[in-house]
Input
Amino acid sequence: MAGDHADRPGRVAARLALATALEARGVYKVFVARREGRQEGFLALRNVDLDVQRGEFLTLIGPSGCGKSTLLNMFAGLVLPTTGRVAHDGTVVGGVNTRVGYITQDDNLLPWRTMLGNVELGLEFKGTPPRERRERALTYLQRVGLGGFEQHYPHELSGGMRKRVSIVRTLVDETDDVVLMDEPLGPLDAQTRLLLQDWLLRLWEGSGRTIVFVTHDLVEAIALSDRIAIFTRAPGTIKAIRPVPISRPRDVFRIHDAAGFGAIYKEIWEDLAQEISHG
Amino acid sequence: MVDETQLRQIAAAAAVAAERRERLVVTLLQMSLLMAILVGWTLASGRLVPQIFLSTPLRVAAALVRLVANGELWYHVRFTLMEALAGYALGASTALLAAVAVSLVPYARQILQPFLVALYAVPKIAIAPLIIIWFGLGVLPKVLLAALFVFFIVFLNTVTGVQSVSRELVGVAAVMGARPPRRMLAIVLPSAVPYILVALRLTIPAAMIGAVIGEFISSNRGLGYLINAASSRYDTAAVFAGIFSLLLVVVAMNGAVGWLERRLLRWRTT
Output
């Protein structure tokens, strides 16, 4: 069940005293762009309030351009709110937030590094000694079924494998107890996508980590999440937050048959349909 | 029933044979073209054009043999090669450092842009006499000229390469905990390597041009001097021999950079 993950032993006990991992309060974001020679402001987010509970899998869903990725980038500290407050463990995020893991739609692997070299990258940046980071990367790759390809370059791997490497590269740094994922499975074909959803759930379940996941695929959102936050169309604000009443562990391949799937699908689809039909 | 193993082997062998045939045809046609040029040259010389302007392939070969045999060629090649290589190394390394510095310091690129474009637009040959005045007649002014010919291309290409880096990738590295200098070394510069290598290849002949121009203007050694001196004696065969030697040196340097490129870009294709 959703709340159970918060009770599992985490690695930073003091921080775990807080039930809220991430919060957004009254967040507005104006992007400025030059249009016809004039600077014009564009409201991307309007009065966003959100609490992400520690250990939960929360998905942001909404029509394209609704600002869900912008909110994710704010949690990563790559974009700052125009007004309002974004905080991680109660501390305001005022610049790059190195305490989260961040996974983008593009795998962003370094093409000149092998799979192993790519997985070691984050540990390298955080100053883990070479021996230790090699060992940890190798162990992790073995554990997630990527053993045997350590010396391959990204262009030698399939899209699905590159995606896995990109996710592993982030998860291997276990000091990050929050992981942000921006449509990570977006570019994959339908079957690979299902396989990776299953793989991702297995990796996450029991890890105690908090995941904020962005997608525009409602079935994917239901299959993975504890809660789903639905965005309005731009300027985006959170319209509703709905818990997914499907028990874990889940079978993503047969999620349509799970008890409660039909009801939650219908409910969220109603929320979304209004936003899409208006656009 | 078809033997599938045999079928695959036959198809593979046919592909290998086709490839070999294609390579053979290309090589043969290249040889024929070269022969045609040499024959055409021989025939034209003395008939269409006075021999004193054109010489003949045989005379050029004889001049080359003479220059090699008396050690003169190697003596001059050594100077030109040394000047070009030193200038190449100096120009390329300062250009790389400058490009990194400009990319790290805020506004530096915008501020320097118009000045650099203006400097780049000045024909470097026009600067050569000035450099000779400042640095005299030795090896140094030739090295500096070669460096000047290399610097701008490597600098501008590196800056372009640095700017072409995916901002998202840099953002990902930042969230992973990489500080700006680290991002430059681990992400940005390696991303710019293809741009840098293109510049390094383009500037090989440029370095030679710089060195030879320096020798043309004032020198008593080097291939530029050899060509210049031979032309003032109307020894066309020796002029061609000098040009031919320059060509060989550039081809050899290209080969070296090609090797470097294959090593550094191994991750691109197998």
